[in-house]
Amino acid sequence: MENAKAIKGLVGVIAAETNLSFIDGMKGVLIYKGYNIHALAQYSTFEETAYLLWYGKLPTQKELKDLKETLVANRSIPDPVLNLILSAPKTASPMDILRSAVSLLGLYDQDAGPSEADSEEGNLRKAQRLTAQFPTIIAAIDRQRQEKKPISFDPKLSHAANFFYMLTGERPTEQRSRDFDICLILHADHGFNASTFSARVTISTLSDLHSAITSAIGTLKGPLHGGANERVIQMLKEIGSVDRVETFIRESLSRKEKIPGFGHRVYRTEDPRATVLREMSKRLGEENGESKWYEMSRKVEEVMKSDKGISLNVDFYSASVYHSMGISPKLFTPIFALARIIGWTGHVIEQLQDNRIIRPSDLYIGSKNLKYTPIQER
Questions:
Q1: Fold entry, domain 28-223+330-353
Q2: Among 36, 69, 118, 242, which lies 20 to 30 A Cα-Cα from 301?
Q3: In the predicted model, what is the mean pLDDT of residues 199-219?
């Protein structure tokens, strides 16, 4: 290995094959199981997209009805998990609480057992339970932060609508539910991103699904991955108005500060998910009579494009979209997890179908053959 070279960040390294999602970074294309993300955002629902990623095809009416009923039936969380959430320090990060809650759920799951390699059917059941439980957990976390009691789910509501209901106690409008449903679809999967890769590394050891998802949540928490959209809304609040955008961004760039929501490891053009969210941000701002968040975002985008030639990513407009929906910035990253759970679990199941432990090599650059000195002589 004399001529070996370490590839920092594994850029361009193909670690495995997948049939879940395809990204064309040069053309700005994202595909789930053969379907373009724009078609899914226009016509699909989160539950239908979940079925697609888990089973590899769009469901029939009966299959979709059965899946919806399964998700509703599994929305409850065990009392010890709820108690964990309610007893967490008010200063705790919602992502830390979510990570701990998922780890604890692994102890109470109906398919939990001593076997190292769970069946695919068992993992699908676990995936569906976790998907159903994530809104309950995240809504309870937010209610606890506000010192309010958790709200029980409404079995008549969709996955997206029920989440809003458990957050606020009010049933959202059909348009609000649909908007949030689209957001979940857009965030459901995205190739071998850092959190998905960590989930696959964990399950490749023949660990269990809950451990793999716990790994993924810990990875998503980082500001270079899922935490960017929270920093976007913080930046927009600091800017305050459209007329301050150019000065703020150019001064930040002169200090070599990273502008959140811009740049992507894969895309060299506009992130196709951002295209959908930009239009949603504009419409929501107009509906709320508070267009400044969209207008500031649009101006930031223009300055970054002209000065740096850098395109935005999915995090940028998701910030103003979620803010316009009345969602706390502290929930932005947990909501990312709420959507990505179907992608994570899909990848865990796929990894186990043709598993080999993921164990890359390293390139040692330290000293060799040092002479050991007894402690009394140092």
A1: Citrate Synthase; domain 1 (1.10.580)
A2: 36
A3: 96
- Active-site residue flag, 38: no
- Bridge partners, residue 23, by sequence: 30
> Is 187 known to be catalytic?
no
Express each pLDDT in 313-348 by its tens digit. 888 999 999 999 999 999 999 999 999 999 999 999
Q: Which of 118, 142, 189, 315 is an active site residue?
A: 315
Catalytic residue among 24, 96, 154, 225: 225
Does 323 participate in catalysis according to the annotation? no
**Could you give phi then psi for residue 31, rounded to 5 degrees?**
-130, 130
pTM: 0.94
User: Hey, which residues does 35 pair with through a beta bridge?
Assistant: 32
pLDDT at 9: 83
Please indicate whether residue 101 or residue 111 has the higher confidence score (pLDDT): 101
CATH of domain 228-324: 1.10.230.10
Tell me the C-alpha to C-alpha distance, in Å, between residue 81 and each of 111, 112, 179, 223, 277.
17, 16, 30, 26, 34
User: Which pLDDT tens digit goes with each residue over 214-268?
Assistant: 999 999 998 888 888 899 999 999 999 999 999 999 999 999 999 998 877 777 7
Report domain extents, the chain.
28-223+330-353, 228-324
